[in-house]
Predict the 3D structure of the following.
Amino acid sequence: MSTLLLGVNGQVGHELRRALAVHGALLAPPRTRLDLTDLAAVDDFLHQHQPDTIVNAAAYTAVDKAESETALARRLNTELPDLLARYSADHEAVLVHYSSDYVYPGDGDQPWHEDSPTGPLSIYGQSKLDGDEAIARRGCSHLIFRTSWVYSARGSNFLKTMLRLGGERDSLAIVADQVGAPTPARLIADASVHALRRYREAAELGGLYHLAPRGVTSWHGFACEIFRQARHAGMALAIAPERVSAIASDDYPTPATRPLNSRLELSRLENAFALELPDWQSQLSLTLHDLLP
Ligand SMILES: NC(=O)c1ccc[n+]([C@@H]2O[C@H](COP(=O)([O-])OP(=O)(O)OC[C@H]3O[C@@H](n4cnc5c(N)ncnc54)[C@H](OP(=O)(O)O)[C@@H]3O)[C@@H](O)[C@H]2O)c1
């Protein structure tokens, strides 16, 4: 059995390298070895190495830049998954892929189900949705995990930005009208490798799943919990909890529009793979622990 992991130096990819290590031979070419925008090179690589499982954690994730770099976002988020799915269908390989809450329109206050109508608000969201649909159309064996608000101890993400700003500033204004679940890369990797193992024994488990911790918060709520837990863990901060003010998305304009409601219904994943997802607060403390000196 040989597994190809793409995006090994990203937040999720890094955790997947650890989680997949016990599952046989792992091939994990970094960008310097395989440029994923070069689809002909990717195709050659697949035919040369003939993996029977592909785990695609690579993506174009610069949500705001995607509004102006549309072709690049589509190449990585739509055309690359389509190519991987075509190879998987032709070679009876399994494709594991990651998608986003940004495929949903973000209205209302109810959780999105995997079958809910989509309606991306951004180029990034549209490119991710088109990637999901391309995989389904190719008819290969696959697992797609739609996740939200990813963070980890490495890379750039909201957690690390807050820890930096909270150490430098004595007041901050954070968006409070976008609601979702902050999801650590470690949880994504562990849950998806668990699901992959079960899927190898039960082909009917293939398909699309939401993957996030239980519970929801806003970016403002996430920031306050980061500062509360960081202070409790002994990290030095300049910011006081009462100086973190709540603002609306309209007060913080960005090139790409974000969904206000990113709540994801999680029961399909829990039921299919006998998983009990943890709450987002306990997951935050695990990642904070990784950042402690
Ligand atoms: N981040 C979020 O908040 C979020 C939310 C929902 C869903 N997701 C989805 O979750 C998955 C993993 O996200 P993540 O946060 O782990 O992403 P990430 O940290 O941005 O990692 C993306 C990976 O893709 C690689 N990559 C990008 N362009 C490449 C190219 N031309 N050639 C080779 N490699 C290239 C990057 O390589 P380098 O390391 O060399 O740059 C990096 O390893 C993605 O499918 C993403 O859409 C993410």
